[in-house]
Structure formats: C-alpha cells, structure tokens
Amino acid sequence: MSRKFDFYVVPTPIGNIQDITLRAIEILKEVDFIACEDTRTTQKLLNHYDIKTKCVSYHKYNERERVEFFLNELKAGKSIALVSDAGTPMICDPGGVIIEELIKAGFTITSLPGACAVTTFLSQIPRCGEEFTFIGFIPRSEKQIEDTVKKHTGENLVFYDSPERILKTLNVIQKVRKDAKVSLGRELTKLFEEIVTGSCSEIIEHFKEGIKGEIVCMVYAEENAEDTELEFKIRELKSKGFRDKEVAIILSTLFNLNKNEIYQKILSLTGFKK
User: Fold this and answer.
1) Under DSSP, is residue 88 helix (H, G, I), strand (E, B) or coil?
2) Is the pLDDT of residue 272 over 90?
3) Which of 85, 80, 95, 90 is nearest to 40 (CA)?
4) What pLDDT, in 10s, does the model give residues 29-38?
5) Superfamily of domain 7-115
6) pTM, two decimal places
7) Where are the alpha helices (DSSP H) in the chain?
8) What are the Cα distances from residue 7, in Å, to 10, 61, 83?
9) Cα angle 96-155-99, degrees, rounded to a multiple of 5
10) Distance (Å, whole) CA 130 – CA 156
11) Domain topology for 118-219
12) 44: buried, middle or exposed (CB in 10 Å: 19+, 13-18, 0-12)?
C-alpha cells in the first residue's frame, strides 16, 4: 500500500491517451479534486478512464489567487492532484507558485513519474553523452534566438517551439551556426509522430510544405566550441560597458582561463582592436 500525500503532481499523456500509469489513474480517482490548466482538456482524459473527480482550473493567470483556496482545502483534510494539459506539470507549465507555498506550509508533496516530451524525444535521437541544456520555449525575437544559440554553442540545446515559428527559428539558427546539426520531433506519441535529424537547411527543406504539431528540438553542441563561447562572453561584457582589461580579469577569474590569452582574444575581435 502506497503512502498517502496531501498534494500529488500527476503527469498526463502528451498525445497518446494510453500513456498514463495505473497509479496516476488511481490517484486521480482518489483525490478530492484535480487542479488543471484547462478543465475541458482534462475532462476528456477523465471521461476516458471513468474518473469522476471534480476539476478546478489552475493556470498561469490565476496561480496566486488559487493558493489560498488550495491551502484552506488542504487544512480541511482534502487531497489535491495537479495536472497540466499534457505531460509533466512544472515542465514549462504552471505549478511553481503553489509548490513553494505548500512547502512553506508543511504539506506533503509527491510527483508521479510519467510522460514528458523532453525525455520522450531525447530517448530516440542520436547523441553522445548525457548532458543537455533545456530552456523551455525558445525566445521569439531574432536577436534573443541568436544570443541563446551563441550562449549554448558548446552544449546540446533542447527547446520547445510552435509549428508557426519553428521554421523561422531554424533560419535564425542557421545564420548563427551555418553547419549546426539539429534534431526535430513533432507529434510525439501520436499517429503522425516524426523525428528528423540533419542540418537546418535540410530540415527546412523537409518541411517546406508546412509543419504541424507540438515541436521539441535539439541543436547539437559544436565541437571545439570554446572560442565561440568565449567570444560571446567577451561581447556580452563589452556591451555592458566593461573595459578590455576588466573583461579579461572577470573571465579569467570566473572560468579559470589565462588572463593574457583572453586579453589578446579581445584585441583580435572585430570592433575591439586598439
């Protein structure tokens, strides 16, 4: 018999409605109510599994105002499950506010294992090593995308994007890193699931007729990316008004690099020559 908690974080399917655990179904049936992003979306899942538990809306626009309600219900001995529209709550979904307040108030919390687009995607693409950086939804503006890609040149960069923006995003990535290798997944666990790996231009060509479905993407780390990352850090500090010698001292201190080598690198960059 499993331990009873006050608050349960429960993953729901990201596409295929059968991708839910037996324990998740049991918890959703046993709690007093379910906090969800969109009651209409969650109700479809509950109907499929004959779950009669009441739903209460909980989304990014009412997170804080719901806190007091949750706390009062828990103090009265009720139990609550938190779900998102799809996948694991707290991964690019609401939940941070209530979790923080529940911990402060001393309530018990547990999270069930289950569906998540990031791990589903990463477990079926070729990659070396285990390290990656997940940033949630990639920024919208071209400048922000450029800065993000430059900042993470030496890391496998994983992000979400919408089908309306992804081709534009790939064009920007290609401009910053012409030879970047990319994997793109769409419609994961659904009938038309598709994973494509290649250069930005190859993926853009593949989807030239359009692309549908939720998108998760990884830009592969660039080999020997140290120089690119160092250049990005230098330019970032220079844009903040730091002088050359100050930049050299800061970077050498933070990253255990040779101060003189950094200074020479600064002088060699276009726009920073003396």
Assistant:
1) coil
2) no
3) 85
4) 999 999 999 9
5) Tetrapyrrole methylase, N-terminal domain (3.40.1010.10)
6) 0.80
7) 22-30, 39-48, 63-75, 96-105, 117-122, 142-151, 166-176, 200-206, 226-239, 244-255, 259-268
8) 10, 21, 11
9) 10
10) 9
11) 3.30.950
12) exposed
pLDDT in tens, 20-70: 999 999 999 999 999 999 999 999 999 999 999 999 999 888 888 889 999
Residue-wise pLDDT for 190-234, tens only, equals 999 999 999 999 999 999 999 999 999 999 998 765 566 677 778
Strand pairing report for 133-137 and 157-161: parallel
Segments making up each domain of the chain, as ranges: 7-115, 118-219, 226-268
Task: Specify whether the CB–CB gap between 148 and 169 falls below 8 A.
Answer: no
Q: Are strands 181-186 and 54-57 parallel, antiparallel or unpaired?
A: unpaired
pLDDT in tens, 93-126: 888 899 999 999 999 999 999 999 999 999 999 9
